[in-house]
Amino acid sequence: MQQQKIKISQAVIWVSSIFLGILSSVPQLASHEFNWKEAIVNSVLTAAFSVIMWYINIYMLNKTAGKRNQHISYSKLLIILAFGMVIMFGLAWIQQLILSHINFGPVMLMVEVRGILINLVCYMFLTLLQNNYTGQQVQLELEKVKSDNLGAQYELLKQQINPHFLFNSLNTLKLMAETHDTETVDFVVKLSDFYRFTLESRKLDLISIQEEMKIVDSYLFLQKARFGDGITFTTELDKKTYSTLIPPFTLQLLVENCIKHNIVSQSKPLHIKIYDVSNTIIIENPIQRKMAVEDSLGVGLDNIKMRYKHLLEQDITIHSDEKIFQIKLPLIHEYHHY
After folding, report:
1. What is the per-residue burial (b if ≥16 Cβ within 10 Å, else e) of 117-153?
2. CATH 3.30.565 region(s) of the chain?
């Protein structure tokens, strides 16, 4: 997220500085020995210091505007105070040159204290303003992520209730019933499980790999009833991997893409493999391109990329050569909502 830089009206800077300059001479007005020349010099130097510190504080805070830190930076505050003390010392020295009758020691102490107070007011005001900007931008970003996630979930739901998939499944079920296939009941159960998983998972941001593999198993059972030995599937996942997290239907979508874009036949079986390496989960298949690719209502890889990017701020890796197509998904061990 690009942090918005602090912008202060020039009128605010100059009017507030002049006001502080006048305010610094108020005690002198109550004095019996009021010296208008001394009051003017004091007011001008105080106003000048205020203007300088406004711009220094704005510059220093804008240098680190990209960081999402809503806490006061004490190191930065000390640096700005040190700058202010040096500048105020210089201005006090100028005041001594103009008003040589004033004792530099007591005046120096007074103006340094005044300078620290003015500097603190400028810094705290600008820090609060910057934090307010940051909070507004974070809120806007969260709303955008929420909107993108809802859109992805809607597109994902359309993908799962793909009329082509349902049509093919019902056709397969019809043939199984007509031939009195012994696995007809199991097919109905798996089809029911698949759509139950769809309805249960669509409201979740992440589910465990173990739950995701149940969805994949149900989907593959339905596809194997259609393609028979034209599909082979191998899983080589570590036990610890099953407890990690993944956006729902990610692996199922990738398995569906494998079947959709490659030749699946008894004479040329499609082998799909899922395994984990170096904190990633990999799904791969040999490239057996179809002459004509099936139409899809879903968003496929774009859906998965968007969910990983916006929901988790992570990227997936896609590798393809003439023989193997591979997708690497980063393992998610814990989830912090951004």
Report:
1. ebbeebbeebbeebeebbeeeeeeeeeebeeebeebb
2. 161-330
Identify the bridge partners of residue 272 per DSSP, sorted by sequence position.
233
CATH of region 161-330: 3.30.565
pTM assigned to the model: 0.54
Locate all alpha helices (DSSP H) within the chain, ordered by sequence: 10-24, 26-29, 36-63, 74-98, 104-160, 163-178, 184-201, 209-227, 250-261, 300-306, 312
Residue 245 · residue 208 · CB < 8 Å? yes
Report which of 332, 321, 308 is spatially closest to residue 253, judged by C-alpha positions. 308
How many CB atoms neighbour CB 20 within 10 A?
20
The C-alpha atoms of residue 191 and residue 222 are separated, in whole angstroms, by 7
Q: How confident is the model over 176-212, as pLDDT tens digits? A: 888 888 888 888 888 888 888 877 776 778 889 999 9
Residue 317, SS3 per DSSP? strand
Q: Alpha-carbon Rg of the chain, whole angstroms?
A: 34
